[in-house]
Amino acid sequence: MVARSSPLDQFIIQHPEYFFKASPELGLINPNNLYILMSHIKCAAFELPFEDGETFGVDTLDQVLEYLEEERVLRHVGGRWHWTADSFPADAVSLRSAADENFVIIDISTPHHRVIGQIDRFSAPMFLHEEAIYIHEGIQYQVEKLDFEEKKAYVRKVDVDYYTDASLAVNLKVLDVFRSEEGDRIGRAWGEVMVTALVTMFKKIKFDTHENLGWGPVRLPELELHTTAYWATLEDHPAGIQSQDELQNALMGVANVLGQIAPLYLMCDPKDISVVYHVKSPFTQKPTIYIYDSCPGGVGFSEKLYEIHTDLFEKAYEVISQCGCDTGCPGCVGPAAEVTDQGKDLALRILGGIILDNQPEGKTQRNVFELPFK
Ligand SMILES: [Zn+2]
């Protein structure tokens, strides 16, 4: 493995035992996620008609079957639900994503255009906007045209020394709280959220050094994502933080680290989750950091994060405090240029306060080399 400067890569290089000694997989899936369940029920019905009264994991099977009949996918005759659609349902199931509205990526470098990949609808504006660099099998492609209506991206091979990173303007609204717990300095919750996301611009970032080489605008429609999220609520005026600006920088740094280390616990790709922070959340009325499942309906990441909430913040403190940089770098809170010279210090101050709050009396500081899970 050749480590890049991201906190995840750096953590693994610093703690090789994470890779060599950890139990291999913690695959999370939520079989009751409606998008996933629906696809499975369709495939099952295609193989063999459901009979009245049959069960399929959940007790809402009847409602799903009725919905599919309304959609003219199934027909209910003589106590059985028969497949009537023309299509073969397994074709529409992706191993990579839950939603079935995928964008197709077409390579137009040669006269014989060929499909090289797919990306789910919610990720498409981030990764397939015009001028985005898309990497497939180690080859760089640049997106020449994104046909949003037809869900097709036309790409051409290029050889450049940068990658692209799109900026999302995210609006998150809490719809329902499943569980929550208050604390003196930090509270946690897990619930259902609606995320609206608009890609506004993209940056060109140089390989290796992560230097910013320029930017361009993105004009694509806003997308809505109904999913689950975990969130941590901080106190109004955290100790050691003097102003709104300081709070903003501290939250930015902490959010950056959390987004990179949470995948260590979830065994997922950093892209499978997203982090947003509010200096004052309209819902909690306090500084809040949200981590949501990028998959529509959620696959269980947020519930897991709710459970490991304390570990997560301790690990964030550990990663930042052990980072060799002075004022912040891409390996911890983000480049100093983004979080200001004080970014690292501010993030440590806010995290230090939280960890003290969670440290029961007599408990010594966690061993740095302790694995996230055993
Ligand atoms: Zn650093």
How would you describe this protein?
Helices cover 28% and strands 30% of the residues. The chain has three domains: 7-27 and 166-207 and 220-358, no CATH class; 34-92; 102-160, no CATH class. The longest helix has 23 residues, at 244-266. The model is unreliable at 361-374 (pLDDT under 50). It contains ten helices and 14 strands. By secondary structure, it is of the alpha+beta class. The strands form three sheets. Strands 9, 10, 11, 12, 13 and 14 form a six-stranded antiparallel beta sheet that branches. Strand 2 and strand 3 form a beta hairpin. Helix 8 runs antiparallel to helix 10. The structure holds zinc ion (ZN). Residues 323, 325, 328-329, 331-332 line the site of zinc ion. Zinc ion (ZN) is lined by residues 323, 325, 328-329, 331-332.
Features of the shown structure:
28% helix; five-stranded mixed β-sheet; binds zinc ion; 14 strands; disordered C terminus; 374 residues; 3 domains
Broad structural category:
alpha+beta
Number of helices: 10
- The end-to-end distance, rounded to whole angstroms, is 23 Å
| Gyration radius, in Å | 23 Å
Task: Bin the helical content.
Answer: 25-40%
Order of helices and strands: HHHEHEEEEHEEEEEEEHEEHHHH
Number of domains: 3
Shape: globular
Structure described in brief:
This protein is of the alpha+beta class and 374 residues long. The chain contains ten helices and 14 strands. It folds into three domains: 7-27 and 166-207 and 220-358, no CATH class; 34-92; 102-160, no CATH class.
